[in-house]
Specification:
The chain has about 475 residues and is of the alpha+beta class. The chain is built from 17 helices and 21 strands. The strands form five sheets. The protein has a seven-stranded antiparallel sheet with strand order 3-2-4-1-10-9-11.
């Protein structure tokens, strides 16, 4: 899972690109990059957070009215500085590209591309793969035309399997935005005073004062030429399966994805969770969220149960999101640095903690223990999502079954491991109803149900799992 923003403007864009990346820093903390265009490509990228990668001197270098920015969260690839985006291809024209998602046939495509098309990939990033496939197809569609670009993207959509949304700039031609045929990853565009902006989440554009126009549709390509004219066409019309985990955890609550408010979805998750809690007839004194993503769900649960809501855990905002840290050791070390208990709110009370999900279980176990040490009389745990049991191949760092504490275990088994007095999960029906707000919507729920909208070959699945295990992220 990554984040990106692209701006096709009429004045310098680097400050807006930088601000936009800070707004979506939650989508990736591994690396960051910006490219601008001023009769040449100006690129700066590196490991770390946005504030660490870009210094004052870089702003003077990153000149231009057109720019693209990216924050990286490692999926396919080694995750080092060489895999940081954007990527550049000099032939044809000069193309820069960033993306969010995961190409599940990356390894077989890379072999074929290097063997048959003689295009060498210098990194293990699937963004570089998409860029080279696009560049190769554009080389066959010369001279350049919008129709030829759309034909090239149609071939990209047919060959590249998995989840991906992205933005590219083609030198002296225009800016290209795209979304995979099933629309698994989010992408939205807006306008402001003659500027065109595209981003992973609406909040990145709204922060900059853009008017949101709409989400890019599944299988759609939007191209802004050098005169600012918009060209758009839906090249593939497959069923839409947006990632439901965006609403549970990844997206900011103030974002709207595919017309659905993330905040409202999380409120609904808490309300639906209350139905299950009521069946247990538990004696609870107060509802306490695990900050930050579970606050709305905890509020919905509190309102529905009529039990008071209290902040019982304070977050150190200078510690990153533990779930998206690339290695398990980093996650465990940061938990107690990240959260500290409010003892006055917890001591002697029967507390129900609310969290968005349980993946590996280490974080939940540490938090339950932390609240007990603060003097809580009982510690119950309610999870606003169902048990995570199946690998995600579409861009979330849980790509082997070893990632999941719930794999092969009952809820009671998980409860004992994390040490809670009770453990309550959301139902899959409650999850879908909460996010869809009772509208007829479909979602990718593969990590909960094992039902994958895009399948991968056994060869690619084995390579993906080997890749993740070699980075140490698939084991506790």
């Amino acid at each position: 899972m990554c984040g990106f923003i692209g701006i096709f403007g009429n004045s310098e864009v680097v400050t807006d690109i930088y601000t936009g990346l800070l707004t979506i820093q939650h989508r990736g903390q591994d690396a960051a990059g910006i490219v601008t265009y001023s009769n040449r490509f100006n690129i700066k990228k590196g490991d770390g957070m946005v504030r660490d990668v870009f210094k004052k001197k870089n702003f003077a270098y990153l000149k231009g009215n057109i720019g693209i920015g990216h924050v990286r969260y490692p999926t396919i690839g080694k995750g080092g500085a060489s895999d940081a985006q954007p990527f550049l291809s000099n032939v044809p024209y000069g193309i820069v590209l960033v993306h969010n998602g995961n190409v599940i046939n990356f390894f077989s495509l890379r072999e074929r591309l290097e063997k048959e098309r003689l295009r060498l990939l210098n990194t293990t990033s699937d963004a570089e793969l998409i860029l080279n496939i696009l560049a190769d197809e554009l080389s066959r569609q010369q001279p350049f035309s919008v129709e030829g670009l759309f034909k090239a993207m149609e071939i990209v959509f047919k060959g590249v399997k998995g989840s991906y949304s992205g933005v590219a700039f083609i030198k002296d031609k225009g800016m290209l935005s795209f979304r995979d045929p099933h629309g698994i990853k989010p992408i939205i565009y807006g306008t402001k005073d003659g500027r065109f902006g595209v981003a992973s989440e609406s909040v990145a554009l709204e922060t900059l004062g853009f008017k949101i126009e709409r989400d890019v549709k599944p299988g759609e390509v939007i191209f802004v030429d050098m005169k600012g004219k918009l060209h758009q066409e839906r090249l593939s019309r497959k069923e839409h399966y947006p990632c439901i985990f965006e609403y549970v955890y990844f997206a900011r609550p103030d974002s709207v994805i595919d017309g659905i408010s993330v905040y409202r979805a999380r409120l609904n998750l808490g309300r639906n969770l209350a139905k299950i809690v009521k069946e247990k007839s538990l004696d609870i004194d107060q509802i306490v969220p695990v900050p930050d993503t579970s606050r709305a769900a905890a509020l919905g649960l509190s309102e529905e149960l009529g039990i008071k809501y209290r902040e019982g855990l304070m977050k150190n905002r200078y510690i990153g999101r533990t779930f998206i840290m690339p290695y398990q050791g980093n996650r465990q070390e940061s938990i107690r640095m990240k959260l500290s208990p409010l003892r006055e709110e917890l001591k002697g009370r029967k507390v129900m903690l609310v969290d968005d999900s349980i993946v590996r279980g280490n974080t939940s176990r540490e938090i339950v223990q932390l609240v007990r040490e603060a003097g809580a009389r009982e510690v119950h745990l309610a999870i606003s999502a169902p048990p995570l049991r199946y690998p995600c191949y579409y861009g979330i760092d849980m790509q082997t079954r070893d990632n999941f504490i719930a794999d092969g275990k009952s809820i009671e088994d998980v409860r004992k491991i994390i040490g809670a007095d009770s453990l309550i999960y959301q139902s899959i029906e409650g999850l879908i109803e909460a996010v869809s707000d009772k509208r007829d919507r479909k979602f990718c729920t593969a990590c909960f149900t094992g039902e994958y909208p895009v399948s991968a070959s056994e060869f690619d699945l084995k390579r993906i799992q080997k890749d993740r295990i070699s980075k140490g992220s698939a084991t506790e």
